[in-house]
Amino acid sequence: MLRARLAEARLAILLLTRIPVGYLRDPIPATGASAWAWPLAGLIAMLPASLVYWGLHAAGFGPTVAALGLICAATLLTGAMHEDGLADMADGFGGGQTRARKLEIMRDSRIGSYGVMALILSMALHVTLIARLDNPALVVPAALGLSMASRAMLPFWLARMPAARADGLGHGAAQVPATCVYVAVALGLFGVLPLGFGVGAVIFAGVVVATALVAALALRQIGGQTGDVIGAMQKLAELSGWGVAVYLVG
């Protein structure tokens, strides 16, 4: 039992980060079975990124450079997979006229103007929100907690939403056991509690609303979820959480 859970956690890290954890041996867990550990993968990726923020801030580079350092480190450690999903979703939803065309654009490896603008605006907003707090005692726990919380709702929507394609990551990960959903949500909520129970609960509520809005948009646009939609969902949920954090404690 413990060996199976460890294998699922390692698969989550392999799937959501670029942190090496070695090769998995047979039997390899199903992608959906690893979903409970996605918040943990977010935590592991954000730990060194938070150290980069703390180091830059302590060295006197200021809140903006420190915020950029945190985001750049986190992006490198996750392989920019969530940013890629956001860009692809923006291109597909913005440039396609039909469901089939939207899915075709989203699968195209090239980036379009909608995707470029989505990345520029999201990065600018992300830096601005983190820099606004300008306090490592707030930013570090918020970064760690939001990295967990923004991934905590992904298993829920994978389980609830139909796959928009008959193949791809979204289809392969759609079989998420109910237990994985409950554990992931619990871990995500636990991640933001160091900010205070009330503040953490409101921030998590903001994350839930953001993911629900993305889910509703995806259902309307393409009839379900894809890997790109799930990646975009994480990124927009994280930004929403930062916005709520700044509003409450900034």
Automatic annotation (TrEMBL):
It is an enzyme of class 2 (transferase). It is a multi-pass membrane protein. Its EC number is 2.7.8.26. Keywords: Cell membrane, Cobalamin biosynthesis, Magnesium, Membrane, Transferase, Transmembrane, Transmembrane helix. The keyword Transmembrane helix applies. Its main location: membrane. It catalyses: alpha-ribazole + adenosylcob(III)inamide-GDP = adenosylcob(III)alamin + GMP + H(+); alpha-ribazole 5'-phosphate + adenosylcob(III)inamide-GDP = adenosylcob(III)alamin 5'-phosphate + GMP + H(+). It holds the Pfam family CobS. Its cofactor is Mg(2+). Pathway: Cofactor biosynthesis; adenosylcobalamin biosynthesis; adenosylcobalamin from cob(II)yrinate a,c-diamide: step 7/7. The chain crosses the membrane at residues 35-54, 60-80, 111-131, 137-159, 171-193, 199-219. It is found in: Cell membrane. Joins adenosylcobinamide-GDP and alpha-ribazole to generate adenosylcobalamin (Ado-cobalamin). Also synthesizes adenosylcobalamin 5'-phosphate from adenosylcobinamide-GDP and alpha-ribazole 5'-phosphate. PANTHER family: ADENOSYLCOBINAMIDE-GDP RIBAZOLETRANSFERASE. Belongs to the CobS family. This is Adenosylcobinamide-GDP ribazoletransferase. It comes from Sulfitobacter litoralis.
